[in-house]
Description:
The chain is of the alpha+beta class. Helices cover 50% and strands 11% of the residues.
Amino acid sequence: MTDSTGPRLDDPIDRYVRRELTPAEARELAQESLDDSEMFENLTASALAAAALASPAKVVRFPRKTRFIAAVAAAAAAVVLVLLYSMRPSQQHPLPQTVVSAQLKPSLALSASPGQPILLASGLQFAASGRDSAPVFRSPEPESRSPQAAGSIVSIEDGLATMNLGSLDGLGKGSQVEVFRDERSVGHLAVTAVFRERARARILAAARIQVNDQVRAPAAAYLDALLQQVEAQSGRGDSVAASTTAEKAAAWAETANVPSVELERLASLEYQLGSLQLAERHYQSAGPQASFGALNNLAVLRILRGDYDGAEAPLNRVVSTSSKTDTEYASSVNNLGVLAEIHGDQRKAAELYAKGLLALTGARGSPERQALEANLARIRGVH
């Protein structure tokens, strides 16, 4: 029989430190902390510490059961951490409202120094990483000719036409190629076999096609070939050639009807080559069909060049229309937090970082979550 005069059961904070709280108990503890400033601060630091200790970046390997317990503890820590910031009334214990200094300039994760707000942008981050996993151009030899948008029919036999465009120019098996004579369309070809600089194609609908008629590669296919060449040249370290080809691709994209996804690729390559303004222009050119990633990246480019007001609209569009569990949603919420820091509103920044962490509850150890944790820890002064 329990002695009612004996010491009381373990305090909930002690149980939290030992990682014994269930998610429901964590919520209750977070609610209680709203009326206790000291408890609130202690729980905040403990939540960050617990999450850090459970990080998969650790080299030490533990038994499966221990890893499961650590995962549960990290989940409880995340619940407490998010609830502490989402439930805390704004009028209680306000954070210092200091204006961010010039030294606190935002940066992408791979180039961020300690103390800098970290921006998240998937396409730009990939470009900045050196493109180690970039797709290999079809033929990376430096002496390769450049992709061509137009060619001609060199021979016709048994209903098959051979043209001097090939995989180097973006053609693939099944591609449809339009044929012109004196700038007038005279028919179409369906590619049946593709070689590096040649292709064979079936003449469609009994078109009266002749040798020396002009053929044109599909606009999107040709642009894709140019972008692959930029990637190959950049991968070889030939930045001059890569910049020249990127300019050629940009000029083509402005005059041709190409999918927005190709414009987004071009924007990422322009950023890689150091052309922030051109990259921004290509993201803008993607128009209403721009992906959430493109909108987020457009905002990041504006933040990097100091256009903070111009960055808010694309970020708010992503946050208001994307799924609350998407990585791009979390990235845009993080970037809105960075803007809040820039404007000196640290409390709002902390709330946004916590909101981003909540969206990535199932992505423990991801680069996006690590950046959000670093931003939140920095702004709270937890190291």
